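Please, structure for the following, as tokens.
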Amino acid sequence: MEGQKKLKQSKVVKIESQESWQHHISHANNKGYPVVVHFSAFWCITSTLMNPLFEELASTYQDAMFLNLDVDEFKEIASKFEIKAMPTFVLLNGGTAVDKIVGANPDEIKTRVDHFIHSAPSHK
């Protein structure tokens, strides 16, 4: 298989079920990982345009968990975090939201995610 390109595996976990959400949040909490959640919708062009940035962040910060959640599929989770617009990025520490970024501003998202991850207890 030499010479064949290896497909790059995504570091972003797409939430497929309520159980998947619970599992990943519990796992992150047990490991002390900070969590970044991209609340999106398949029909929202702006959310879709943020996917490459979110993948880049996930590849950059290996000791954090990056989750992608469709608000139409998981309305109860979106409601719990008071998601009113897409894209919205919620930064969780110990299962608690510590910051929320609404909108598609790549520089702001990068800056705040970087600050969040470097100030998380597991990175001190």
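The chain has one domain: 13-119. The two ends are 42 Å apart (CA to CA).
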